[in-house]
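Reopening: Cytochrome c oxidase assembly protein COX19 still failing for me.
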Amino acid sequence: MSTAMNFGTKTFKPRPPDKGSFPLDHLGECKPFKEKFMKCLRENTFQSSLCREESKEYLECRMERQLMAKEPLEKLGFRDLTDDAATEEQNKF
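Support: Ran it again with your exact input. Result attached.
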């Protein structure tokens, strides 16, 4: 008795995830920003909230060099660190 498995009829077409995956920085274009961020993390016992400015700079570098999709910084959780937010804060006083 043989069982025939029909592998050829179904095709699987992989597609990349919308978020959470982006190309590696093979040329090291953003390496200085990454190193600065990692140094900050080590100095602050890996409390990322203390390294938000470094994180923002690293993501900006990646977006500028098309290593990740461009997103508004507000959408990435940096609303308080953007120039617009700083201007709004100054206008309140």
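Helices lie at 31-43, 52-64, 83-92. If you still see a failure, please send the error message rather than a screenshot.
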